[in-house]
Design a protein that fits this description.
heterodimer; A: 325 residues; alpha/beta; Rossmann fold; 2 domains; 20% strand; globular; B: 318 residues; two-stranded antiparallel sheet; 11 helices; 7 strands; binds thiamine diphosphate
Chain lengths: 325, 318
């Protein structure tokens, strides 16, 4: 059935709650309002206010309570109204959730999900546009996913809910209603830790995730007209990275461009580039290239936002340069 | 201008500005979100009026009026809201995510109530240097659920800081009604736990706000420490202009509209013997002209250029 990315999230939540009564949701305005973006629309009606819990404006509490509930057998799915606000619950994510199992001698589980509506391109400005995934991708004990398609949005969320570790789930706001595709109605999972090859080719590789996937696919289609065939690898999971898939495409084409909307410096692209440099150096025909948001804040004004973000044109220009090596 | 008239002018200016934003938003002339403070004018005017330029305020998303009363140029504020180069943040962020330190207006982030600990830092400087200035920190009853509020109030109490915490209780945090936010009726009760006084006041009654905040400001200036003032009020619009606010009833809105802060104040002016019809028309024209000019200035202002997004990050380049 044709389903939007946001509807796929809603479907996944509903399925998970039907399948397992231990699954419950907590967050701000997720009940009657159905969430700021309507991700939880209709769930209060079906499951009641005990399982669709409207909380005060207390991100630290939302994450912390999820950790506690998860440790004793529930499967909470916490919603940040915007990913940007996860900073207010940061300690609970990176110290409490991430180390729970470790500091209990491996004898604890923390089956929880923190949903983070992230991303730019929606004129959100400094505090409603952030891509804070790299704050978390260096924290062992967490898993970090960032679906780009509606199919993955559903399958990765179901995976994340079933997973016994804390999963930070970045859902891209720009894609919510713009991405629409056939998604099975039934329950299914997309495995955490597995990248997806979206396009096969032999000349250059794009390694990407989230909204940047679409810039890469567009650029690859354009390059195809110029006789350059591309691989497009969608990472989908950012922690742990699918090193096998990264190295396979790097070794195949020898030319890699990493693209993400997150800031360039300290973004996951640096890690991907290092993996390639360490383990596929002999296969490379060009320097590993990266394209990310410029190293500044998520500026509001239209021209500024355009200037700092990756775009189809910027990816295409970088792709041409790479192909030219 | 006589105080009574100046207050009236301020109330009307804030309402005109807010009303214009709402209209412009519906006409698609405003990029980004608009969080209307319509209905809450007495609260911002009454608390900020009479502060010195050196005093600081920490307004939040619904406190546009506080900017105006504190002395921020309406033209610059409008340019800020339109994301223009001439705006307070030069287009780097929208709406009220900007300040004007020269006017004693500290810009907030979106992270609700994160500004309260910062307000304590400003107050700490006033205390350290023996400056007789005060800090007003605004926050919603919804934001009062954040830990930063607790940390700020606790510290302010310990240090007897010259800060007045102003809670705007409009009974809803986005769609969440107060009983889902807290198990008490009055946020002001919490002050006791921090070792200072908390007062509840009718936030739609200009004089009540001026009386309560004024006394707290005087106490703070004399070194008597912080106070928490809770102003009960109501926002007429939805949370943002996109929100149709179906979580509350029409009757509830009507009831609050019948307690409109400006009507109440006009009633007072009339009792004082002013010709209200004439005064209202004349004031209306003046504030309309001010806002017209602000809109013209802002809309005629250039948009920032893309590369300007890289400016303003560091005071010293390495
Ligand atoms: C830390 C944080 N969490 C969530 C939000 C999203 N948000 C913006 S305004 C708002 C409601 C605020 O309610 P309240 O503090 O009562 O102020 P009001 O809007 O009613 O004036 C929410 C949840 C935010 N801005 N910051």
């Amino acid at each position: 059935m044709e389903t939007t990315y946001i509807k796929a999230i809603n479907d996944a939540l509903r399925i998970a709650m039907r399948e397992d009564e231990n699954v419950f949701l907590l967050g701000e305005d997720i009940g009657a309002l159905g969430g700021a973006f309507k991700a939880t629309e209709g769930l209060l009606d079906e499951f009641g206010s005990a399982r669709v819990l409207d909380t005060p404006i207390s991100e630290s509490l939302i994450v912390g309570a999820a950790v506690g509930a998860a440790a004793v057998g529930l499967r909470p799915v916490a919603e940040m109204q915007f990913a940007d606000f996860v900073s207010c619950g940061f300690d609970q994510v990176v110290n409490m959730a991430a180390t729970l199992r470790y500091r209990h001698g491996g004898n604890a589980k923390c089956p929880m999900v923190v949903r983070c509506p992230s991303g730019s391109g929606v004129r959100g400005g400094l505090f409603h546009s952030q891509n804070p995934e790299a704050w978390f991708t260096r924290v062992p004990g967490l898993k970090v996913v960032a679906p780009a398609t509606a199919f993955d949005a559903k399958g990765l969320l179901l995976s994340a809910i079933q997973d016994d570790d804390p999963v930070i789930y970045f859902e891209h706001k720009f894609l919510y209603r713009r991405v629409k595709e056939d998604v099975p109605e039934a329950s299914y999972v997309v495995p955490i830790g597995k990248a997806a090859l979206r396009m096969e080719g032999s000349d250059i590789s794009f390694i990407t995730y989230g909204s940047a996937l679409y810039h890469c696919l567009d650029a690859a289609a354009e390059l195809a007209k110029e006789g350059v065939t591309s691989e497009v690898l969608d990472l989908r999971t950012l922690l742990p990275l699918d090193r096998g898939a990264i190295l396979a495409t790097a070794r195949k084409t020898g030319k890699v461009l990493i693209v993400h909307e997150d800031r360039l410096t300290g973004g996951i692209g640096g890690e991907v580039a290092a993996i390639i440099a360490e383990h596929a150096f002999e296969y490379l025909d060009a320097p590993v290239m990266r394209l990310g948001m410029r190293d500044t804040h998520n500026a509001f004004a239209g021209a500024m936002e355009e200037y700092i973000l990756p775009s189809r044109e910027k990816v295409l220009a970088a792709g041409r340069k790479l192909a030219g090596y | 201008m006589e105080r009574d008239l100046e207050l009236y002018h301020n109330l009307r200016l804030v309402r005109e500005f807010e009303g214009r934003l709402s209209k412009m938003h519906h006409q698609g002339r405003i990029p980004g979100g608009v969080y209307s403070g319509l209905g809450q004018e007495a609260l911002v005017v009454g608390s900020v009026y009479g502060l010195a330029r050196e005093d600081f305020i920490f307004p939040l998303h619904r406190d546009l009026g506080a900017f105006l009363v504190k002395g921020v140029d309406p033209r610059l504020l409008m340019a800020q809201i339109l994301g223009k180069k001439t705006g307070l943040s030069g287009g780097r962020d929208s709406f009220l995510h900007a300040g004007s330190l020269a006017d004693g207006v500290f810009g907030a982030t979106s992270m609700l109530a994160s500004s309260l600990p910062v307000a304590c830092g400003v107050a700490l400087k006033f205390k350290m240097n023996g400056e007789p200035n005060v800090v007003l920190a605004f926050f919603g009853e919804g934001a009062s659920s954040r830990g930063d509020v607790h940390e700020a109030m606790n510290f302010a109490g310990v240090q007897r800081l010259p800060v007045v915490f102003i809670c705007e209780n409009n009974f809803y945090a986005f769609s969440t009604p107060q009983p889902m936010e807290m198990a008490v009726e009055d946020v002001a009760d919490r002050a006791a736990g921090y070792g200072f006084k908390g007062h509840v006041c009718n936030g739609n009654d200009l004089f009540a706000v001026m009386h309560e905040v004024g006394a707290a400001v005087e106490l703070a200036r004399r070194g008597g420490g912080p106070t928490l003032i809770e102003c009960k009020t109501y926002r007429y619009s939805g949370h943002s202009e996109h929100d149709t606010a179906t979580y509350r009833t029409k009757d509830e809105l009507l009831e609050w509209e019948s307690r409109d802060p400006i009507y109440m104040y006009e009633f007072y002016l009339q009792k004082k013997g002013h010709d209200m019809a004439a005064l209202s028309a004349e004031t209306g024209e003046r504030v309309k002209a001010t806002v017209d000019e602000a809109v013209k200035f802002a809309e005629d202002s250039p948009d920032p250029e893309g590369p300007e997004a890289m400016d303003g990050l560091y005071a010293t380049q390495v």
